[in-house]
Amino acid sequence: MSSQDIPEENLPAARDHAHGEVADEQHPFADPGLPPHEHRIQDIDEKAAKRSERAVAFLFTLSMLATVAFIAAFVAIDHEKSIYVFPIGHINALNFALGLTLGVALFCIGAGAVHWARTLMSDVEVADERHPIEASPEVRAKVHADFKQGAKESGFGRRKLIRNTMFGAVALVPLSGVVLLRDLGPLPEDKLRHTLWNKGKLLVNMNTNEPLRPSDVAVGSLTFAKPEGLEEHDEEFQNEIAKAALMIVRLQPDNIKDKRELEWSHEGIVAYSKICTHVGCPISLYEQQTHHVLCPCHQSTFDLSDGARVIFGPAGHALPQLRIGVNDEGYLEALGDFEEPVGPAFWERG
Fold first, then answer.
1. Which residue stretches of the chain are H helix?
2. Around Cβ 323, how many Cβ atoms within 10 Å?
3. With contact defined as beta carbons under 8 Å apart, do 24 and 16 qualify?
4. Predicted local distance difference test score (pLDDT) of residue 25
5. How many CA atoms does the CB half-sphere of 80 hold within 13 Å?
6. 91-130 in b/e burial notation, b at 16+ Cβ within 10 A?
7. CA–CA separation, 57 and 64 (whole Å)
8. Sorting pLDDT into bands at 50, 70 and 90, what band is 67?
9. CA separation (Å) from 276 to 185, 220, 246, 281, 342?
10. Distance CA 5, CA 258 (A)
11. In this structure, is the dihedral angle defined by the CA atoms of residues 77, 80, 85 and 87, taken in order, positive or negative?
């Protein structure tokens, strides 16, 4: 389109002339300025402003109710219950309720804030000249003045209904996150400090599922054991074996350097937790000549002839030892539980 096709009143020179700014050779396109401000109905009609205020307050109140419904749903709805929702199909009732109520709570806060800004806060456009990055005292004073003016025009101090309901909505919605954090899993209580091992519990070979006798453990061999009565088809098998898994090694008593280790062994047979104290990987590599065991995940190395202390790698502490003996029938048995928690460190471990 050429300049001849543009209406004369829309050309820059004519437009600038209409605004009282005549373009020159240095500034052929002078700043046309801002269009005249058009007042909204809320600016001139207090009844309309009150209606908008009530609408914003309603959205914030609805957000509060949705947050309360979120918490109620979390407590009341069975996590295994399912419902049919068209057109999605069968879905978990708890997940659907939590998603719906949390979505409504967050949406209403956002919608209330947008409606407040568009209908009640000042919408006057202000053009400001660019200034250096470093603010001068005059600019800082102007910013403070503009902030106070903006706060006044927003009606934040005058419209207490909106302010109070907004505070309520914003204060309640974080409770949803608190409830979700509670659902990260069951509280550990003291479960991490105890295993299935106790006095008189037989050591059962993981491969043969038979109780172990001292003669079953040869010098230099590595055997894995579990507590008597723990079967793979048990519902809690994985949770329990992750704490109770044992590795059994037979050493020459003269090669055992740690006094307590020797006292807790039987004829050189020592029983240590199989769970690495770094991140909980199962230890499965044994060096017969050095009596070292190696975790395959991050190469933490423990000396089984010296209290299973850490000699290499990121593990933080030695492997816990299980005190063992032999019962009247000649089978290896535990003489109690581990005296310290097995596996990696945790916050309450001390």
1. 12-18, 41-44, 46-76, 93-119, 137-154, 160-172, 174-182, 237-244, 259-263
2. 20
3. no
4. 67
5. 0
6. ebbbebbbeebbebbbebbebbbebbeebbeeeeeeeeee
7. 11
8. very high
9. 23, 20, 11, 5, 8
10. 100
11. positive
CB 331 within 8 A of CB 212: yes
- What pTM was estimated for this model as a whole? 0.52
What length is written for the chain?
Answer: 350
Lookup: tokens for 143: 């910013």
Q: How many CB atoms lie under 10 A from the CB of residue 342?
A: 26
| Residue 71 DSSP label | H
- Read off the amino acid at residue 16: D
The model's pLDDT over 156-196, given as tens digits with 9 standing for 90+, comes to: 778 889 889 999 999 998 888 888 777 777 776 777 888 99
Write out the two tokens for 350. Answer: 């001390």
Dihedral pair phi/psi, residue 325, rounded to 5°: -155, -165
Residue pointed to by tokens 């660019």:
130
